[in-house]
UniProtKB/TrEMBL annotation:
PANTHER family: METHYLTRANSFERASE FKBM DOMAIN-CONTAINING PROTEIN-RELATED, METHYLTRANSFERASE-LIKE PROTEIN 24. SUPFAM superfamilies: S-adenosyl-L-methionine-dependent methyltransferases. It comes from the Eukaryota. Pfam families: Methyltransf_22 (PF13383). Gene3D superfamilies: Vaccinia Virus protein VP39. This is Methyltransferase domain-containing protein. InterPro entries: Methyltranfer_dom, METTL24, SAM-dependent_MTases_sf. Residues 2-170 form the Methyltransferase domain.
Length: 186
């Protein structure tokens, strides 16, 4: 609980994937998530992204000084598609995206969800920062529209009462189809 660990759904399945790929954005120099993931799943390839320059612990991750965005931000912003292309990951599945970008999640996720469906991560672990209620509602609606379901929520007790850690899993679109309203029981 707090500002510590993140929840990953079905880590046993990730252990079985020979080309597991994890992205971690907004490390702020703290590589605890990456170190633990590498310990639990040593075969996973982990890429860490941040605006500032840091150095990943040896044999844990690959660091990139990049700001996630739409590619027009003056602070070295790159779009999701550009990042995947530059890293040679356009044909690979992103298993986990852990992201803590201090309120930037609202604008970044609108850019992320414009990407092709096959490039969207299977799991998203995100710290949601306080914002206007309409932005928060639109954020969750955007994730639902792209077939993500919450599998964990916990307060970030260190940051404050309005900060929450969420974990989402991308489900088959059939899961979200409503039952017909005129369905009758036979």
């Amino acid at each position: 609980m707090g500002d510590g660990g993140k929840w990953v759904c079905d880590p046993h399945r990730l252990k079985a994937r020979p080309n597991c790929l994890i992205y971690s954005a907004g490390s702020n120099g703290d590589f605890g998530f990456e170190v633990h993931m590498k310990k639990v799943m040593p075969h996973c390839e982990i890429h860490t992204f941040d605006q500032r320059r840091y150095t990943c612990p040896q044999n844990v991750c690959i660091f990139h000084q990049i700001t996630f965005g739409n590619g027009t931000h003056p602070n070295n912003s790159k779009s999701w598609a550009t990042i995947l292309e530059e890293l040679g990951h356009t044909q690979r599945k992103i298993d986990v995206l852990k992201i803590d970008i201090e309120g930037g999640e609202y604008s970044f996720f609108s850019f992320l969800m414009q990407s092709s469906t096959k490039s969207l991560p299977q799991q998203i672990l995100v710290e949601v920062h306080p914002n206007k209620p309409n932005n928060i509602h639109a954020f969750f609606e955007l994730l639902r529209k792209h077939h993500y379901a919450i599998f964990n929520k916990e307060p970030n007790l260190i940051a404050g009462s309005q900060f929450f850690e969420y974990a989402f899993f991308k489900l088959n679109s059939e899961f979200f189809k409503a039952l017909p309203t005129n369905a009758t029981k036979k």
